[in-house]
Amino acid sequence: MQALITGDMLYSYLHCKYKGYLKLHGEYGRKTEYELLHQASHDAFKRQVTHTMRTHYRDEPILQGCTVTPSLLQQGATIILDAMINTDILSFHVDGLQRVPGASQIGPFHYMPILVHTGGKLYEEQRLLLTLWSVALAALQGRQPEKGRIVYGPACKASTVQLSARLPKAQRVLEELRQTATTETPVMLRLNNHCRLCEFQDRCQRQAMEADDLSLLRGMSEKEITQHNRRGIFTTMQLSYTFRARKPRKGAHQSKPAHYFALQALAIRQQQIYVFGMPELPTSPVRIYLDLEGAPDRNFVYLLGMIIDAHGVETRYAFWADHPGQERMIFRQFLEIVKQYESYTLFHYGNYERTFLKRMRTYAPHKKLVEQVITHACNVLSLIYAHIYFPTYTNGLKEIGRYVGCHWTEENASGVQSLVWRQQWEMTGDDVYKQKLLIYNAEDCMALQRLTENLSGIRAQREGSPLPQASADQPPDVVWVQDMSAPTSRGSWGRAQFFYPDFDYINKCAYFDYQREKVFIRTSKTIRKASIQARKMRKSTRLKANKTIEIKSLTCPLCKGRIISRNYDNIHTKLAFDLQLTPSGIRRRITACVTTQHQCGICRKRFLPHRYKQRDKHFHTLKSWAMYQHVVHRISFQNLEEILHESFGLRVGYSELHMFKALLAHYYRTTYKRLLHKILNGSLIHVDETPITLQRSKGYVWVLTNLEEVVFLYRRTREGGFLREWLKGYHGVVISDFYSAYDTLPCAQQKCLIHLMRDFNHDLLHHAYDEEFKVLASEFCSVLRSIVSTIDRYGLQKFYLNKHMKDVEHFFKSIDAQRYTSEIATKYQERLIKYQDRLFAFIHYDGVPWNNNNAEHAIRHLVNYRGISNGQMTELGLGDYLILLSLYQTCRYKGLRFLQFLLSRERDIDMFAAREPQGRRVSSLDVYPKGFPWPYHKNHKR
User: Fold this and answer.
1) pLDDT tens readout for residues 332-378
2) Counting CB atoms within 10 angstroms of each CB, which of 235, 359, 547, 915 has the fewest?
3) Sheet containing 748-751: which strands, arranged edge to edge?
4) 5-182, what's its fold?
5) What are 63's strand-pairing partners?
């Protein structure tokens, strides 16, 4: 006979599977004070809700304290309170049932469950428990309720919960409970946030310590633990040996600092403090250490304590609130103290204080003062999380504080225990509990102060500064991660660091160029000849001009006079370089731009023509050819510099090539905007994104394309808010992958089925023996194959695709009716149901593809370019490159030659496509043949 699963077991399993396993097998521990008080307050709140419901439905039939059966439900009571539900293995109380319209086996109505929650916030556990109740209720009334209701908070708020989205997960939990109840195989122990409230916390902590379990490292998710287990890592000792001190990649940037659990485990094993990077701790003459005590579920802060260290003089404050109405009063008292100081730093531990300050900003009379406090706030926990690894299993203030020598008067002092003391004070009014809270808060402030001073001492020790007096007793055993691996001259590129100067001298004498020019040249005739030839090539050679043009000015730039004289004894010459492209090859073209010293006959001003001074050194064809090679063939600027010198004898520097890119991007910016406007006003958009690393930051490149135009753009984050703004009022279809940012776009969407098919295939290879998942994948494959066959024969025409609508509807109805036990099959079932309106939307339109290959094909060129330029570009340079890349990909999609488009100087791609590209524009300057007899002076400038 199967074990009976009670409501307590069910609720315990939702919070911790191991706790549920223990209770399913008849084990119970000693409940904590918090659990007992929470149960008492829950019962009192439940009585209050019951009274409220009875008052509200006093004219309606109400049942209470009965066992739910089909015959009882057929009576049609409006409300059933504190009801008992019994199934084959389940037996638990529900807080209430409410009659709602909708036919079922019990009549033209059915019931939905009601859950009563004491706290002021709702969590996923309450919603899932409500869904589990609905599953048991459906077995009695013959219909699954679509909605449920949760009554919570002091004001008895009612929140409606959609149950269908959580139904597969609830059924999976019930199946796991059945298997756990009928087997003796123990559930894997995993410590979690519920442990601090649990009756088994001491037992589980001892068991985890004996096993050296990875879940001792709080903050490590169950997914990360499972990944380590697959690699054969089950203990913190094993994990500690996996840390490797790696030098950060040049140009790498992370928006969120990483926390290395392997380094945390290493600190525990070695009992040393490890410092990763340099913590930036603000310094100021006044330091304020703030700590708050509150009830998070009630969104209420009742105690605000702080220590102010102003130029070595300490002052302590504590502001107490008897009820939520006094919360603003203690905050105003806090502001009155803080506004006395001009320059200060407010230290706090965790985000609770910052969240409180932001919440109170709306109620404060002086918002600028609150903004100033928030600006001066420093979260010490964020510094520790990113840089400091103490030999502790958590980064909690109590554990780290005890490590650095802090003590608390109460042995069981903790955040949970403070909630117990506050609740006991509210129930009894005994000042003993109030004093405990005041002492506890003051000791938290002192611990924060001592910890902050220790961090200052660690930084001062690294910089070689004298340690602060307050940090004299800090733990001396500090290891800097960047010093863990000794410097070596092997295994890495770059200039090596040598211990002895003689090693450095010997190493310099071994360089390749040095030996060829200083050593081998004396023994090898071939090397001597090559060295002499290289020196000649390095010398600047005088290039001959193919043509000469004279630049004249007919008016004076100062007085606009037209009496101009020219001094032919003072001649100025500029060389302008260009390429001439012909069907048979490319040749160099050099133009000598010549002018003379001009002098106005009226104001006697001497000047050079403005056109001469503004004359470009490199012409459009050279710029176009260079950027064509860079964008299309991904030739780097260093290689382009060598190609231009070796092939054409032109010395074009690296910085000049960067200028080419900027000038052409500026020239074609209007073309880029025109392409973006056409895409956003069309009927179809493909969208995709990919990460890219710049010199000092990391961002994302997005691509928007239809079947003809392509536009790339850069964003610093992956947030898709800008797309929602751009697509307001858009009436077309957006094709994208399954990234969640696209789900909120206000328009019709089609998800890429190739992405979904690849995900199916990947998981089939890893779950080859999961029969449920294989059947689900086979059904999806069958539906998609028949549709693709129609597309392959008739194209993307809804006239021929409408016949598949019935198959699609039948497919979704069948998977919605299935009850999978496999985790991977349930995961895909939820995914398919979630996107059912966006997976086969293309069959309702003409010309809408069923995949996102247009965007992926466009972005592939950038991905290849990223391989040779990642971490080297700036944000400005990337923006210029994306403009030219957008033009190139658009030309490809339209079947045009990108180089010919650049050479045509046309700014409208559609107009360029409508006619043959014209040749280069003829210059308005006078053109002189080669060898024009100019009277060159010996002082003439070239």
Assistant:
1) 999 999 989 888 999 999 999 999 998 888 776 778 888 889 999 99
2) 915
3) 710-715, 698-705, 684-693, 733-736, 748-751
4) Lambda Exonuclease; Chain A (3.90.320)
5) 80
